[in-house]
Write a structure and sequence with these properties.
Elements (H helix, E strand, L loop, with lengths): L11 H5 L4 H25 L2 H4 L5 H15 L4 E2 L5 E2 L3 H20 L5 E4 L21 H13 L4 E5 L6 H7 L8 E8 L17 E6 L5 H19 L3 E6 L16 H18 L4 E5 L4 E5 L2 E5 L2 H17 L13 E4 L8 E5 L8 E3 L1 H13 L4 H24 L5
Parallel strand pairs: 3-8, 4-5, 4-7, 5-6, 7-8
Antiparallel strand pairs: 1-2, 9-10, 11-12, 12-13
Helix pairs in contact: 2-4, 5-6, 8-9, 9-10
């Protein structure tokens, strides 16, 4: 396998801080068996006896038997979604290791925040078992590393994957985590895998925010403002971790929530603002879900919905890179939601939530500089009001102009 990362693999000590030794050993044992089987298959494929013109029937039968036996161990299905294959160990260990390395970088001040684009995901992995595509709980291992390795007193995990992070939830409910780890999850309510995360089971450090099927952008944002943000602020973490799953995107068929890439930009901006207020902006984000299903004959193959996943991840990373909070106005739904292009460009576009997305407002570079200044300083002054009024006026004029061109029905 080509070398694709410079991040170290997670150590056994780091894994054992979240997972039971029995679980870790079982995963590594089966990974090792499959790796050895595949290595032996490679040797058989290049064995000169397999292609020699004078090979005997005995040798042919012997090689064929060995090949068939080894092929039985080319993969191992833990469940319908979770399969150990040849490079699973390397990928899983480096995914958890990358999350720990990101914690090191943020806690030592090497970077302000970090995003880990890793596979496999992790938040379904329980302390004692693998499930739901997940072998090791990357975000949970990172949280334990922050507590044990850096002495962080309070770690918060915000999980906006459309599926409940049952593994992270389980760890947060252990008695020794009651005042050290906060877990907040926004997810589609059952029936939706893994059919857990009921709000009725919320505790002092576990806040599950359930969403109905077909939840809209505005409904999601309302729940986030009223349920997630107060809980997160009250906990006042020293480090904020994000389980960044993008399968709540409307194009993802694994669930039924209607978010767009702009919503992931918005929610990340909200989290950046809170982190700036309570933990010096220290954020580590780890990629979780984003999937679609393709059927082929009687088999099921899972692949990632690349366009939705790419757009959503890009929006999330852009918000982390900009580290520009969106102001917390009560009437935010009537104001500016997102800047859709780089603020340095001379012409930009702003979206207003109470108008169709086909209607756009073009602002001058001077107005955008004024907007950026307001967003960076976090002050809702006359400049903000003036800019919003100007934007709304332009939008209403454009809307009226478009309406006048629509023919009257006969």
């Amino acid at each position: 396998m080509p070398h694709i990362t410079t991040f170290p693999a997670a150590t056994l000590e780091q894994l054992h801080a979240f997972h039971t030794p029995l679980h870790v050993n079982a995963v590594l044992k089966w990974c090792g068996k499959i790796e050895r089987s595949m290595d032996e298959l490679d040797r058989i494929a290049t064995d000169p006896r397999a292609t020699a013109g004078n090979v005997t029937a005995f040798l042919s039968a012997n090689l064929s038997t060995r090949r068939d036996t080894l092929l039985q161990y080319s993969s191992l299905d833990i469940d319908g979604d979770t399969t150990i294959m040849r490079y699973t160990r390397e990928a899983a260990l480096h995914a958890a290791g990358a999350a720990c390395a990101a914690v090191d970088a943020v806690m030592t001040g090497a970077c302000a925040n970090a995003f880990c684009a890793v596979r496999p995901p992790g938040h379904h992995a329980e302390p004692h078992k693998a499930m739901g595509f997940c072998f090791f709980n990357n975000i949970g291992v990172a949280a334990m590393h922050a507590i044990a390795g850096h002495g962080v007193q309070r770690v918060a995990i915000v999980d906006f994957d459309v599926h409940h992070g049952n593994g992270t939830d389980t760890k947060a409910r252990t008695p020794d985590m009651a005042h050290r780890l906060l877990y907040i999850s926004t997810h589609q309510k059952p029936p939706c895998f893994p059919n857990s995360g009921h709000a009725i089971r919320n505790s002092s450090n576990v806040c599950n925010v359930e969403m109905d099927a077909a939840t809209s952008s505005s409904a999601f944002r309302s729940k986030f403002r009223t349920e997630v943000e107060p809980t997160l602020r009250a906990f006042a973490p020293n480090l904020l971790l994000i389980s960044a799953g993008f399968d709540a995107h409307r194009d993802d068929p694994m669930a039924n929530v209607n978010l767009m890439a702009d919503d992931f930009y918005w929610v990340t901006c909200r989290l950046v603002r809170i982190a700036s207020a309570v933990c010096q902006g220290r954020i580590v984000s780890v990629l979780e879900g984003g999937t679609s299903i393709v059927g082929f004959c009687v088999l099921r193959y899972y692949r990632y919905h690349l366009r939705a996943l790419a757009d959503s991840a890009e929006a999330h990373i852009r918000a982390l890179a900009e580290a520009v909070p969106i102001l917390n106005h009560e009437n935010e739904q009537d104001q500016i939601v997102s800047i859709e292009s780089d603020l340095c460009d001379s012409v930009q576009v702003l979206s207003i939530t109470d108008h169709p997305p086909s209607l756009r407002v073009t602002l001058s570079s001077l107005q955008l500089k004024k907007l950026k200044s307001v967003l960076l300083t976090g002050s809702a002054d006359a400049q903000w009001t003036q800019l919003c009024v100007a934007a709304k006026t332009k939008l209403n004029m454009k809307s009226a102009a478009l309406s006048s061109k629509v023919p009257t029905p006969s």
